[in-house]
TrEMBL record:
It comes from Zhongshania arctica. It is found in: Endomembrane system. This is YkvA family protein. Residues 77-108 form the DUF1232 domain. The chain crosses the membrane at residues 70-87. The keyword Transmembrane applies.
Amino acid sequence: MQIFSTKRAQKVLDNGAADVTESQIDLALSNRQRILNKVLHSVSLSPYIEQVKTLFSLLQDYVKGEYREIPWWSLGSIVTALLYILLPFDAMPDFIPIAGFLDDAVVLKLCLDMITKDLVTYTQFKAQETSKTSEAGNQG
């Protein structure tokens, strides 16, 4: 039996995505370093560090108005997953060795699975932006 089920993670994401606000996006972004540190220092979460960095990049580009090609529900799921990592007392308190971050990992992994298409679209956008920037630099 799983301690924290995918079904429960789905409920966390659904509820959070439905109620996400601009201020919660700002809250996630303002806690970027704290969340990244928790991910880096957790055996359960550290395999997802690059994806978490991409999620923050996407949020930042959304807030700046540079990228808006993402459904609000997907954006809400991202914010919910990131803020869930930040909470020390979620379904399994983070101070419990190893198991404390398992629920965080389940929520994050499910979020990543659900927004795969949106992440692919975003990474393609970023690749095009990088290509345009380097071309402009070579012409100057």
